[in-house]
């Protein structure tokens, strides 16, 4: 039977009890509206942990005032059923008042990678992410926390936070889960009209095309970016936030591909719905 | 026999072992050069905890480039003996490379109280304090952490960080320990010439005088501050950074004393040595 916990103090006590019994805790932090991508994270947590906690919390501090916090899709009953069916042990689902008191004012901030790519378009986003993940770590006391590669920059920043602040948590990353037609799974996909839903496939196709071009020897990021941008703009003229080529070890943008792998990350808006996708491309096939 | 631990990973493993054995951990974070004030903190930790950890680490991120990081007094052998004699269980004394890697870049920052009083004169100080305390909490995994009231603002900010980020740590505060003549204990007192050492007594005397004036009915902060400043300036003309009157619940400066207690905090420099002191003054004697 899945436990439902809403209080941070109660969750901490329960985590202490589990740890004292020498059982291993895996945490899957989510904003709810669960999809097959989340279920993969839960499955992954189960492989190495005795107790799987899923947190469901739409974190206001990672949304800017002009963003979609209030209309972000929520369906708690459906989430609960999906979690139960996935053998989740504890669903931690705090209210806003439990997470942020009126006088809240202490933030965790990674100060370099947080400012590029997503961070350029969403300046306070990763400060909100780092802060809420630190809070969830302190509340759920996991041995392992599982994140999706879908937000590659988030994975990098959270891993860096763990190292920099000595959180005793192992970060496990799960590959992007896609719809059968290639669209990366996202709770935000429900925002898409059916026309935009089709057009959005171009993001995945552009990444696949970049992979072929890079494996065929193209190393100049300017050339590659312009090809990808033309391809994306041809499908319903979305607005592109960025198509970025990143050194995956340091998460810094590069001009030329010299290392054996490159992370290509992109963000575009289809009629106002902002989607991200990425691919870690190895220069040699395997 | 006191354990000496220099590695964060080893300290975490040891903390896990202690916690699994259901023993309670008390942490006393220090910058070393221990004095009777620190010993009181250790004593306090002992009253409620099974295992007392003292950390000794002169934290570079809480010093500005123009401050006394490099000449801050250090005497590890003496500290070790004092800790041993005080029945400390574990001395955690990491090197700089253990605490801050070359690519360190994630900070914890309380964003309001950190900017006033000390924070005005030391703009990055409390960011460094909050960050290193968060790290020490994640490394030593204490149930209880003991701080001195000597840095009242630090106590407030650390307590706020604990609440805001859900650290499962109880903060215990120990009153200021003073030399027989009234000077607040501080590792920095060794910087003082014998003339300045005598002049510095005026800080304590000014606080005592303010207490009398407040209990006798004076409520106007402008009047009280000007009296205290004149008194302090009369003793060897130190430079005063601030004499502040603070609402102890919210840590906000006030113009007029209306609540039943007020925190008076001050900072002054005697030939370049910066000293702080404070007193929590209740309006009614008891």
Explain this structure.
The structure is a homodimer of 286-residue chains. Chain A has helices at residues 8-20, 36-48, 76-85, 96-99, 118-121, 125-140, 152-164, 194-199, 201-215, 221-233; strands spanning 3-5, 25-30, 51-56, 90-92, 106-110, 144-148, 170-174, 239-247, 252-253, 261-270, 273-282. Chain A is α/β, with parallel strands linked by helices and 286 residues long. The first copy, chain A, has two domains: 3-174, Rossmann fold; 187-279, Pantoate-beta-alanine ligase, C-terminal domain (Pantoate--beta-alanine Ligase, Chain: A,domain 2), CATH 3.30.1300.10. In chain A, the strands form two sheets. A six-stranded parallel sheet of chain A has the order 1-4-3-2-6-7, with helices on both faces. A four-stranded antiparallel sheet of chain A has the order 9-8-10-11, with helices on one face. In chain A, helix 6 packs across helix 7 (152-164). The mean pLDDT of chain A is 97. At the A-B interface, helix 1, strand 5, helix 6 and helix 7 of A face helix 1, strand 5, helix 6 and helix 7 of B. Strand 5 (106-110) of chain A pairs antiparallel with strand 5 (106-110) of chain B, so a sheet runs across the interface.
